[in-house]
Specification:
The protein has two helices and no strands. With about 80 residues, the protein is an all-alpha fold.
Length: about 80
């Protein structure tokens, strides 16, 4: 049976539709990070297009992501120790 486009099924909350979790129940958070570094080139410029046409391996992309997001990840990891 096909679902209607644009309609999503109601999501079941992991906490069982309760407003508050008990202190013994684990809380799982997902944090999505994106870099905020300024880009030194104009979109659509020759430099920008040359960079976009370079072949890049998954390993190099992974290393670049780690480098760019390093400070943000450190702040997220430090957060639980600062909040107690």
């Amino acid at each position: 049976m096909a679902r209607a486009i644009g309609k999503s099924a109601p999501r079941q909350r992991p906490s069982g539709d309760r407003k508050y979790l008990s202190p013994d129940e684990p809380l799982i958070l997902t944090v999505y990070l994106r870099h905020r570094l300024p880009v030194r080139r104009r979109p659509g410029s020759a430099v920008d297009l040359a960079e976009l046409t370079k072949r890049v391996t998954l390993g190099k992309l992974r290393l670049e992501r780690q480098r760019i997001l390093k400070r943000s990840v450190e702040r997220v990891l430090r957060f639980p120790s600062n909040s107690t």
